[in-house]
Amino acid sequence: PPKKKFRFLRFLWRTTYLTALGGAGWLAWGIYETVHPVEQVEPDPAKKTLVILGTGWGSVALLKKLDTENYNVIVISPRNFFLFTPLLPSCPTGTVEHRSIMEPLRHIIRHKKTSVKFYEAEATKIDHEKRVVVINDNSDIKGDVHQTEVPFDYLVVGVGAENATFGIPGVKEHACFLKEINDSQKLRTKIMDCIESALFKGQSQEEKDRLLHMVVVGGGPTGVEFAAELQDFFEDDLKKWIPDIADSFHVTLVEALPNVLPMFSKTLIEYTEQTLNEEKISLRTKTMVKKVSSKYIEAEITNPDGTKELQILPYGCLIWATGNAVRPVVRDFMSRIPEQKSSRRGIAVNEYLVVDGTDGIWALGDCSATKYAPTAQVASQQGAFLARLFNNMAKTEKLETEIKELNDLAVKAVKDEDKESVEKSLGSKTKALGRVKKLSPFAYTHQGSLAYIGMERAVADVSWWNGNIASGGGLTYLFWRSAYLSMCFSTRNRILVLLDWIKVKAFGRDVSRE
Ligand code: FAD
Ligand code: NAI
To answer: Which residues are CB-neighbours of 264 under 8 A, at least 6 positions away?
Structure first.
């Protein structure tokens, strides 16, 4: 028998080999599955109509796990793709390309056993009494019909939220946002535009400094991650290819509270602020933006002695990342339900995500108001919960019909052995019904928070067994990358993101204007 040392080496080699083989097989299956949609059956018109609004984290998680053969499923959303938002802050600088984090909805629905209808449209009115949704085709190209009504038996509202501006004058007109793909595309163009305009012949130094001042408002994870990505872009690529901007390009992060990233532990907040400082990002905490004009930001600063002063900051590009606000369609829906009157942050729901004051309408994700933070983790767990709920509802209905039929048979049965067999089936169906009906309310499992903070460093507060692990630095950055890669929607997305990262390492980011 081989010596102990060799036995261990052989074990290590075999494990590595089998893992690599398994990984390659999994990847190959993923690719095969992506390009080979299944034969689908048409839905049974006698089944109930389930309308799902939105194609974000919540709605897509529901769609993924839903047995579509039980319903006539209709999905309505102004965008015909799912967007992997955790990597969106990497897009405006070109670290990750837009299409790499988009998954076409058709890829998702063509893999369902029973076909699903999709309408690319915006829901403009939810009428819970008439049980219809009014939808509008808001794209540039419209057919003769561009507004209609879609009736529903069941409705799931997963329309997300819009950017909060708190009614601050000038924000909507002058700021860039970072919520959707087109926000990111606009932002990428604007950054490069500012750079090229700053270098225009005869530009004064003052104007050059203004144009190259990138101000990010909001020290939540969106603001921190984007400011970090922008500074990386400058350090790694812009400085190298456009040395003329090296002395003037400057990123400022503005936050109204005393600290950034309030959802992280104190040590990680301190680590983040120290890293931002090392990166030469100007961090202005206790600074509340009050007004925005085309070239200047007015901000109220709270001094250490508690006094307040107004400061004017010239800027070239303003990125607004101050969290979520309720969408107009949701506000309108809530205004017509008395039970929703006191809910401010979104649609009030019960522990099964049923919209308070309605019947057969559910809400999930950022458009709903629960005790959880508006995150992708929460929305996707809610989506998976609703899929279980709908699958169980269909099973319940089927079992109840079967039990009714068996009861009728039991009455009609004459022979003892027939009676006995019917009783036996009744017993097992009733037990199954009891099991199916026992669905516990939604319970969220927090897996942790991760954020990229620049210079190939990340912070993580991860739940582990019954405790929590807080870490920050280069290793956490590798963890952050592998976690996000594994969380990508599909094998196709994983490969595209990985290729983007390799491409950026090899050739740097693209500095041309789109
Ligand atoms: P969304 O994913 O926003 O989807 C809403 C859907 O509804 C979209 O398809 C939209 O087109 C559609 N819609 C909009 N209006 C209508 C309408 N009128 N009718 C029909 N459909 C409509 N969370 C994390 O947990 N981890 C992260 O790392 C993370 N990173 C983020 C990074 C960024 C830049 C941003 C902006 C958010 C990030 N989040 C993260 C938060 C996360 O993206 C949201 O919490 C999540 O998207 C909420 O899912 P949702 O399904 O409720 O809404
Ligand atoms: P946020 O709500 O987390 O943070 C917004 C910040 O803007 C707040 O700290 C607020 O104090 C500040 N602010 C508001 N008004 C201001 C003003 N006038 N002037 C200066 N500062 C102002 O918003 P964010 O970052 O967009 O995140 C939204 C949701 O998405 C959160 O639930 C977040 O957890 C989640 N998310 C998670 C990420 C991750 O886990 N890596 C990444 C991005 C978002």
So the answer is: 272, 449, 451, 459, 461, 470
